[in-house]
Amino acid sequence: MNKNTKTLLLILSFIGVIISGYLTYVHYAGAELGYCHFNDTFDCDKVNKSIYAEFLGLPVALFGFLMYLVLFIYSFFLLGKLKLKLPADHLFYIRLLTGVGVLFTLYLISIEAFVLKAWCIFCLIHSVLIFIIFTLLMIERKAA
């Protein structure tokens, strides 16, 4: 993996940590994202307060936060900023993690589109982030 890809992975995962961390905080604080209500179609509160905002009793945003945190820390290892010997198959596990993230994101997108009929801007940004990260990792797989 070249240095530009590693740096991009670091930046994208950092953005993901910030967004999902904020949404996790909002969930536990019981706060509303009133500024994110544009109309009936784009309404973060409708999405984030629905029954689909939790999975296994935990906020969906927390799962995103943990995934992005793992990717963020992993990026530091790739860039050589943290010293630890990674197992030989480390990329397989990172691709698996992001692949599960993509599948879960597709599930959440379908819920927003067909069940809630409302979109959360933060969720859409998360969707774009995970698809870009997954694509980067798959392109690197073909290049290797």
From TrEMBL:
Residues 2-141 form the Vitamin K epoxide reductase domain. Keywords: Disulfide bond, Membrane, Oxidoreductase, Quinone, Redox-active center, Transmembrane, Transmembrane helix. Coiled coil: none annotated. It is a multi-pass membrane protein. InterPro entries: DsbB-like_sf, VKOR, VKOR/LTO1, VKOR_sf. Its main location: membrane. GO terms for cellular component: membrane. GO terms for molecular function: oxidoreductase activity; quinone binding. CDD domains: VKOR_1. This is Vitamin K epoxide reductase domain-containing protein.
